[in-house]
Structures are given as structure tokens and as C-alpha cells.
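To close the chapter, one final illustration. This time we ask the reader to focus less on the individual chains and more on the assembly as a whole: which components sit near each other, and how the overall shape emerges from the parts.
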Amino acid sequence: MSDLLSLGASGINAYQRALATVSNNIANVATDGYSRQTVSFQSTTPKAYGTNYVGTGVGIEAVVRQYDAFIESNLRGSLSDLKSQAPLVNYANRVVDLMADESTSLTLTMGKFFASARDLAAEPASLIARNVFLRSADSTASSFRLIAEQLDAIEAESRIGIGDIPKSVNTLAEQLSLVNKQLGRTPLLENQPAELLDERDRLLRQMSEQIRIRTQFANNGEVKVSLTDNFDQGVIVERDKAQTLGLEVSGDSRVSMVLNPYSPDKRETLGSLGGGTLGGLLGFREQVLKPMQENLNLLAKTFMDEVNAIHRQGVDAVGRPGEDLFTLASTGGSVAQSLGVGVVDPQRVAAASAFRVVAEPLNQGGSLARIAYTAPPPAPIPALQQVVTGINTHPDASVLIDVQTITPLATVAAGSKDTVIYLDPDGDQWLQVMTRDGRQLLGKDLTPTEWGLLSAPDAKNGLAAGASYSTTYLNDPAGPNSYLGLSYFIGARAQSLPVSEFDPQSHLETGTRTSSARLTGERLPTSMSALGNGTLTLNGIALPSSVDSPQDLVNWINSTPTAGQEARIGLSAKLVNSVAIDGKAIRLASDSVLYLNNRQIQMAGVTSLSDLAQAISSQMGPNLQASLAGSGELVLSTLDGSDIEIEGVGSPELFALPEGNFRGRLQIDASPHYLVKTLPTPLTGKSLSINGNAISLSGVTNLTTLAQAINARFQSQDVQHVRATVTASGELILGTLDGSELSIGGNLLNANQLFKANKIELGFGTGGSPAELEKLGFRTAAYLDGVMPEDLLVFVAGVGTARVTAASTVTEFDTQASLRNSPFTIEFGANNSYTITDKATGTRLAERTYDPVSRSISYRGLTFTFNSVVESGDKFYFDNNRNGNGDNTNILRVSDLQDEAVIGSYTLTEAYVDFVQRAGNVAQQASLAEKTLGVVYDQALQMRESAAGVNLDEEAADLIRFQQAYQANAKVIQVAGSVFDVLLNSL
Amino acid sequence: MRISTAYFYDHSTQQVVQAQKRITESQAQLSTGKKLINPSDEPDRALLVDRFRSSIERQEAVKTNLNTQDRRLSSQETAISSSVEVMLRFKELTVQASNDSLAPSDREAIAIEMINLRAQLLELANTRDDLGHYLFSGASATTEPFVETNGSVAYVGDQTSTRLTAAQKGHLSFTYSGSEVFGRVIRNDTSTQNQAQSVGFFDVVDDLITAVQGSQPDDIRRGLAETDQLFNTLNLSLVQLGADRNNITQETSIIESTVLNLRNTLSGIEDLDYAEAVSRMNREMLAMEAAMSSFAKSSQLSLFNYMR
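The assembled structure is written out below.
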């Protein structure tokens, strides 16, 4: 109603409310997150009086919360950004402080290590200096460990820091869900209590300190919060439900956030989360900590590997090769965490160089020599294992080599053990084996053309520069002309081997015995010419001119050796021939026809293979026999090794046997035989026992009677086949007929002086060749026994296509150790020639010409440099520096490592500085960003405060205004009252 | 734009706090005398300081090593000069002995003194340093270089040189092995078909002693010429030693001036400029006072004060 009283009353009400709101603002001036509330007045609906409208007073339209959603979300965003810089700055600074500080900086620590290496270089023979060096190495390793530990501690701390965040986020989410629930009761935003909305905004702001959030507001003020940048993933608060955030640490300490970690079906791994303290911590781990730990490990590993490599190249105070100086503790952990020193004894510090060259003090030229070593590159021709793959030496497994005059085949690398190379020649082809300095070991003398081709400057076949050709060691390993005392042979060879013996009952090994050697050839060629005179040798003995055919050879071998032919004592030979036919290839039918050696076999009554075998044996015997082997094969053999000709007539498929003429093979056996040249006299007090049987010496006056005594003793025990025979030259040969060993006891015969034959070697004499050996059915091979101490080059000489197979074992070969174990002498001769001679064996390793301008010589990776003129007759000795404990070459190399670019193009120190600088840069940038974002946040805060903050002066003014309005309205009521009084009084 | 009361207070106190922070930093600098308190304040500068320090230490270490080598050279010098004096006496005696008018018994007396001198020479050649390492055996420090077997002395050391890191780039090399210092002589013996023969140091001396004892004038004359050669070889080593020691002195002075330069630069990088720092701190204190007093004043202004 529009009368004075109600007008006044409406005013009073309204202004009372307004005053209450203002005092609420004043009371909450210091409340965090409070939004100022203002009152908006609205005049109430006017009343109509006739054609005029009269107002009816004022009402409170609403208590408006001063709130700008955009400003709020802006504020949240900039708060997240700001908070994410602080942990990054703090932790990054800590890392930089740790690594750049004087007392822990690796620059200074590594510098001290290299300085102590230099100190040791000044006094290498001093035990004190060596001790100091080891202590310094130890403190360097412990510096690495210290920094690694500290970084680990920082890592753990940051992980705990990250772990705290989900807890607070979860609490805030819970609270938000409760707020949402309250808000959910009212459908309109305007009707929501302002304090509740303030609470909601406060919680949201706190959450964005921890992590960046994205919000979506419903019409009634309910908020939906997501941790990612969309609402499909990572929604943590929706209406009145709150999810739980959890932390997951994976193996390499990567941290990821998971929503609902304990619920298998609602589990959600969140990818990129950022902003807030969480973002800062994660950023620190990714950008600073992890790279720093990786770089520290890289530095530690490189440092360790480089120092160890140098240390292993040197020798210690007593000439032993160095071991690893730094090792990793077995307790595991990263490289930097487990770095330690492996050398404890100061004598074991490898300060000296592994090699030394000493000039003979009495040299006429006054030159001194210096030595340097670089591991030589492998020979240009590929290794044997790569050219001839596999170890099958059967001719069918051959590799074909196209030969033109002289062609490189392969390198037998140093360390190859028991190498055998077979060459099945097509015409006149030869294997030529020589050292890289042109000393030929096996093959045939090279023609000047061939040598010219090999030694051409651009030949690139592995021959050393300036190598000269020598045949001194060619095919002659036995005598003083063996190269380095090695054993090598070319031809056909068989050796006796140790064979295990087994107990027949228990099948356990009871020992080994030496089997006798047996050389078996391939099937004899169908047609062949006679052997040349003296082209082949057997155990070094030239075959007599009477030996033209295999049979001649057999007869000669089985004859008694004459004087000077001791090498073939105990050898026996025969021709053998056997053909094995797979039982399944034999078709026995009533119309089967078989001709053996042009005689038809009568098949009457033959129904099985055993019948067939019997029929053949009875009809073709006694020379040609047939038997059934356990594997189901039919084996035809001739006793005298003669040919077996197999033929079917008409349709071969009736009797499906292989057809053809099968020639026999040569078989030479060597049984251990003993040669006694003279009978020791007198016989008193002497005794003799053979294989445990005592031989009575009564009546023995000479070797003949001794032989008789021995034979008499064993005739009664025929099972051992022991025989004694006397040769034409009056020497006694004692042996067995079954190849078993003889054990000689007693003191009549000195077992060491007895001569044993245990190998069969068919080699080449004058004019001999692999083609000659082929006539006897034997394949030629080059044998290199034992481990080769240096690379050997293998060439094939001739024309056409050669077939090569090989077998060899590769063993590990340490070039440096091998050089150290073989000291040699360099001796200069006339016309600037020089010879390198092995000290132990006297072998001439190289004979070359010296270039006085270059003043240097290279041999197998060693370089000798002379500092002045060298005269003919001057000698220089190379050895392993065993007593050179005052030599500092190797430790100087360690100290030079300080200036070497070992990590990319950086030295160790430069790399360390680079790593720390990178971390420092991140810290600096974060610090700058913090300042900038601080300003941004400040502005956002200012805007918010400007919109929603309480200004006491403003409130004071409002207070006065509303007070006055209230007073005015009260006065209106008073006036209304007095007006009414006037009205009442006048009645 | 409105300023809310809360914001006003926060903002003002922040300014005061910032001013305090700046003053604390300046104070720390003044008390330590260094521009850098924590390496993380200026990582670039900190690392630069690091590098300079390690360069300085490295130069000092090289200097120490050169000193060590110099001491060794000094010991060698002493031994060689003593040997030179012995050789001088030897020459005098040889000249005396070559006098035809001397009686054999006189020559025998001379020979006795010569034998004495020879023993002295051998001892000098096998001199050891204070650690017991031989001076003239090359790198085989614990192997006696000159060994006498059946009256004849042979050199059994090696000639490996000692190398040291130099001041600038590369290495310095020192070799004074026994076979060079007590070097061989080439004897052109006309009696043995003009074949030049190489004779060791002590063999020359021994031959001379034998010649003097046996009064063989030709051999004595030959010995005189050869003794001259021995004398010259020793002198040459002495001269070279002197040059090497000079070299070391030069290297040492190069190092000293390099270190001086480095220290100066380092000081420029890390040391505080006190004048600038003090005036800066004064400024900052003034700023803080102003902030504090202005806050005190402006915080007192409130409309409520003016409402009765």
C-alpha cells in the first residue's frame, strides 16, 4: 500500500537488510576467498490510482554476490602456473648447488685425479707416489658416489612431495562433492547461499594450487572438475561424487597419476598432467633430475672405461700387465653409485709402457729409439672362417676359388688352432702359406713373377710394406729351420691320437691310450701315370724310383727298413676295398641279375639279403666277400684290395644296385715300434720287463739273442702280439702287431732313448706336387699345428678353379700379450737393410730395407722411431719392459686423458660443466618464469580483489549512506505517525 | 580499479618483505666478500669460477712436477761434474804416463791411482737418489746400470726417457741414460784391417790402465786420445743438462705468470666490488625505510576515523 507508514516500513526493512549486508562485508574483510555482497534495491510494484500510478516503496531485489566467473577461472589458471615454478626452481637450484659447489664439484675432483697421475709421472718408481695416486683415484670414485647418492636423495624427496599431492587433492575433492550436494538442493544459481559458493570457489582455488583443473559449472552452481584438459578423462568431481587420485611409480622411477587406483573397472591412468605443485615436481624430475642422473652415469662410465683401457695397456712396477683401475661394486645400482677402485696394491699401478726398445750401448751409430704401439687393423684378406665356412673337410663341401697365377685365399688369423686347409687341385695348383713378412712356410717356391704380383705396392693382401721373400723356413719345420719352432706340414698326414678307454661293464672311462696312426686315401683314380722319381717322401724318406704304382708303394712300405730309414719303422700298408650298399636299394626278384667282376651270380634259392651275402661269398670267395652290416647294408670287400666291378644286365632296375668299377684305397698304418740300436753292456745287474713280463737275460749276448729271448717269452702268450725282429743293419725292432702300447720296465733299455713312429706323412720331394699325391688317392692339405702366434697369409698359385675346404679352431688372441712374450732384436746391415730376429728361437721374422729419411720401422703395430743416424751393425732390443719401473709413459697417457674429447667433442670436464649448465639454465628460466608469472598472478588477484574484495572505506561510506537512508525512512514513519496523530486528534 | 583492503595490506607487506630480502642478500655478499653466495644464483658464473680454479690448480701441479724433475737433474748434474773432475785427473795421469822418461815402477804407481779413479767413476755412474733409485739407468730405476763381470763393466739399463707435461701444450722429454752419459768410443784400429770398433766407456779406461801397467807407449797414446773423447762426452751431457735446467726455469716462470693472470681474472669474476655493494646496500635500506614508513602512514587512513 502506498501510505506513508508502509512506505516508511518498506524502506526501513530494506535498509536494515542493506546495513546487515554491509556489516557482513566489514566483518569478513579478512576472510580468505570472501566475495563482497551488495544489495540491489528494487521499487515495489506501483499501485494505480485512477490514471496515476503511485509507488509503493522499495524492496530488496537480491543480495548480489560480486563475482566474475572469468576472473575467477583466470585466477585459478595463473595460480596453477605460478605454483608450478616454485618446486622447479627450488629443486633445480639444489641440484646446481650440489654439483657446482667447490667441495663436491667433479671438475675439481677429476682435476685432482689427473694431477695425481701427473705427480706419479714425475716419480713413477716411488711407492709413495703410487699410493697417493691410488688414494686420489679412490676419492674420485667416492665423489661420484656422493653426488649420485645426493641426487638419489633429492629424487626420493621429490617423489614423497609428489605423493603428498594426491592426498590433499582427494580431501579437496571430497569437500567439493559435499558442497555440490548442498548446491544440488536449489535449482537456480541466484538462490544459492553466497557463502556456499564462496566455499566452492575457495576449494577450487586450493585444488588448482596443487594441480591444474578444468571446471564446468551447472546452472545451479554445481561444479564438474576434470584433471585433464577435457571432460572425457580424469573427471574427479561430478555432482556429489568424488573419485580418488593415486600415484604410481614405475620401474625407472617414472611417476604417473591414476584415478581410482584400487578399483579394477574404474581405473584410469592419466597421461599428461600439469600445472600446480604437481606439475612443477614432475617437470623437475623430467627436465632436470633424470637427465642429470643419466649424464652423471654417462660421465662415470666414460671416465671408468677410458682410464681402464689405458691402464690395461701398461705394466706395473714388476712388469705385469695392468688390470682395470676402476671397477663397479657387485651390490649393483647405477654406474655412478657403484664406482670403486679395483687396485689395492700400489705396486699394481700400471705406470709403465708395456713395450720397450733399448739400443745396444756399443752401437757405432749413436741413435736412440722410441717405441709406440697401436693395435694393428686385421689383415685385408678375410679370415679363413669367413672364406671357407663350416668345418666339413669333405671334397663335396668345397668352396670354389678362381685362381689367376696367384690369388689370395684367406688369412689364418693369429690365435687359430690346429688349422687344416685342403686343396683339391684342378691341374697344377698349390697352396702357398707365408707370414706377412714374406717368410714362406708351406707350398712351392714362388717364381719372381708370382712374388712380384704379391709384393706390388697396391696389392693390399696383408704383406707388410717392404717385406722380402724367404724360403728358409719352407716346408722344413723339423730341424733348426723351423719358423718360431712351430710345427707345420703340407701333404697327406695322419697322426696317432689319444683315445679314451672304457670299462666294458660300467662304461666309465678308465684312461687313455694312444691309438696308432692310420692314413687312408680316397679311391684310387681309374687311370694314372707312373709316379715321378723322388717326387714324394714318406716321413721324410724319398720314395725310391722303383715305386711307380700304389702296389709298389705297399710292397716298399711293408719291406724292412734299411739304414737311414728309421722314420718308417713300424709302418705297414695294404690296399683295401669295400663297397657298402644300402639294403633298401637292393631289389630281390626272381628275374634279378647281378654280375660281379664279370661273373654272374647264381641267384637260385636267394630269397633274403643274408642268402645273397652267402651266395656271393661262396661263389666269389675267398678274395671277394659279402657280409651284412648291422645297419642293414650289404658290404662287399676284397681281401687284396683289388677292384670290384658291379653290373646288372639289361634293365638295371631289376636289381637296383649302384653300377660301376670300384677301385680300392691305400691304407698305411703306423704301430708304435721301438728301435734299439745297440745292446748296453755289461748286462750284470740289468733287468728287462715288457708289459709287466720279465724277460730272462741269461744267454743274451747280443741283440739277436735278446730278440729270441723276447719272442720266446711272448710266444707262449700269443694274445699280446709282441714281436722282436732284427734288421739287416743289426738293429732290434720291438713292437706290437695290433698297435697297442708297449711299456718297457727295468734298467736295460732306457725308455726315453727308444724311437717311436707315431705319424705318417706323405710329403713332397723335388718336383712333387698335389697332382702326384692324387695318383695315390691322397688329398693334399696344409697343416698348421697348435696356435699360430701371428697372422699367416694363404694364397693359391696356378690357374683354373681350385676346390678348398678347411677346418680350424679360433681361440682368443691377445696381440699385446703375444708381443710381450716374444722379444726380438732389430739389427741393421749394409745398404740400410735390417733384420728382425726372434730372440728365443733365432727365427728371422723380417728382412727389409730401412728408409733413413722416415727414420722409422713398423712391425705388427709397433712403430720404432730413431732419433739420429743408424750405422750398419747397430742393434736394438725390443722387450716387455719388465724392469722398467721408472717408465712413466702409461701414467702420462692417463693424465693426458684430461684433454681428450671423449664424450662427443667434449673432454670429461667440459661435459660435466655442460650438464650442470643445462640444469642451471632450467633453474634460471624457471626463476624468470616465476617472476613473470608472479606478476601475472598478482594482476589476476588484483582484478579479483577489485571485483570482489572488500574495501573498508567503501563499506564505511555505504554504512553512512544506508544509516542515513534508514534514519530518513525512520523519520518518514515518525512523520506518518504524527500525521496519523493529527488525524486522530482532530476527531 | 578498486583496491580491496585485503589486497592493499598484502601488497604493501610484500613490498617490505622484498626489500628485506634484497638487503639480506647484499649483507651476505658483504660478509663473504664474494659475489656469489650459492652456485644456483648464477650458475654460469659459478661454473666459470670452477673452471678457472681447476686451471690454476693444474698449472700449479705442473710447476711442482717440473720442480721434482729439476731436483733430479740437479743430482745428475752433481754426479756428472764429479765425473768430469775425475776424468781431468785421469788425463793428467795419462799425460804423465806417456812421458818416455818414466820408469816402469813409476808407471805402476800411476796405474794404482788410475785404478782408484776408475772405482770412483764406477761409483758415480751407479749413483742413487734419496729414494734409492739409480740416476743413470734410464727407466729401470731399481736395476744397477753398470755391472762388472770378470773385470769388465757393461751397461745393463735402458734408455727410456722421462716425459713430463709442459706448461703450454705437449711434453718435455729428459734422457740421461748411462749409455749416453758414459758413452762409447769408436776405435779405428789400424792393426785390425781398418775395422772401426765400438768400445765401452769403462773398457777404454781398463785398456788404458793395462797399457800403463804394461808400459805400452802406443796404447797409452791411444788411451790419451780416447780419454779426451770420454771427457768431451761427459762435458756434452753437462752442457745439455744445464740447458734442460734452464728450460725448466723458463717453463716455471711461464707458469707463474699464467697463474697470476688466471688469479686476476678469477678475482674479477668472483670477488665482490665493495664500493658498489656498500652503496647498493645503502640504497636498499633507504628503500625499505621508505616502504615501511609509507605503509605505516597510509594504513592509518581510514574513513572510520572520520566518522563520529
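Chain B touches chain A through 61 residues (CB under 8 Å). The mean pLDDT of chain B is 90. With these observations in hand, you are ready for the problems at the end of the chapter.
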